[in-house]
Amino acid sequence: MRTSVAAVAALALGLGLTACGSGTDSGKGGGKDGTLVVGATAVPAGEVLTYIKDHLAAKAGLKLEIKEFTDYVLPNTALQEGELDANLYQNQPYLDDFNKSKGTDLVSVVKPYLPPMGVYSHRVKDVTQLADGATVAVPNDITNEGRALKLLAAGGVIKLKAGAGTDASPRDVTDNPRHLKFKELEAAQLPRSLDDVDAAVVNNNYAQDAGLSPAEDAILLESAKNNPYANLLAVKRGHEDDPRVKKLAGLLVSPEVRAFIKDKYHGSVLPATGG
């Protein structure tokens, strides 16, 4: 059954998913020494932040601690509760839905890069090769499921009704000539589903965590053109002008970080224009 981020939150908390701190501080919203505590998924956000911490932060006068998370819910609840000063991992449609369903008050500061979503398969080399009745796994949270369906529509394998937005669901599919069956799974489980389904639409960070290269392994990959899903640095409303946050925001869109992203990911993650 398709779930909202509220339901996913309950599942994540029930499973006891925890964050792994990369520093020695307690992580309570920036210690007395002024450390900025930032939550992130491991790839690419954690790697980008680690590059900044190791190469750029000291020169900018920024003390940075990175806490890595294995899901999409706890980084936002931790930020709302003050256990983090900022997080980096999500896109604007997801943040908007999270705020609406959970009553949080989180805002975007800067959008440094786009991790394109892709379709992956162990059985076919192109989405046009999907057989009649094939099963395609998609994320079960509202915004990522809508994003996945839009990608499949862009690839020409389904059509969505006119005006279907970021919250599109299988109910919005108006043309399905291959009679695809959609299997809704928690986003982190999608790479592990590839042996059991004909294809899966996987978020970039989970694909890379599983050793998949979006640029090389995806049988269909999002275009960066007019793409609303760039990842953003988020803070609790009212903290946008925190000098530490401003320093990190500036570093995230710096020439050095853009070059790191290009050299590190070879098209699997794309630098955004910032802002």
Characterization of this structure:
- With 275 residues, the protein is an alpha/beta fold.
- The protein has ten helices and 14 strands.
- The strands form three sheets. A seven-stranded mixed β-sheet has the order 1-3-2-4-13-5-14, with helices on both faces.
- The longest helix is centred in the first third of the chain and has 14 residues.
- It is globular and about 60 Å long.
Q: Which descriptors would you attach to this protein?
A:
single chain, 275 residues, alpha/beta, 7-stranded mixed beta sheet, 5-stranded mixed beta sheet, 10 helices, 33% helix, 22% strand
Topology:
Blueprint: H1 5-15, E1 20-21, E2 36-41, H2 42-55, H3 57-60, E3 64-69, H4 74-80, E4 86-91, H5 92-102, E5 106-114, E6 118-120, E7 135-139, H6 142-154, E8 159-160, E9 173-175, E10 181-185, E11 199-202, H7 204-209, H8 214-217, E12 220-221, E13 231-236, H9 243-252, H10 255-265, E14 270-271
Parallel strand pairs: 2-3, 2-4, 7-10, 7-11
Antiparallel strand pairs: 1-3, 4-13, 5-13, 5-14, 6-11, 6-12, 8-9
- Main sheet attributes: strand count, strand direction, barrel closure: 7 strands, mixed
* Poorly predicted spans: 1-28
Q: H/E element string?
A: HEEHHEHEHEEEHEEEEHHEEHHE
Q: Report the count of strand segments.
A: 14
N-end to C-end Cα span: 36 Å
Give the helix tally: 10
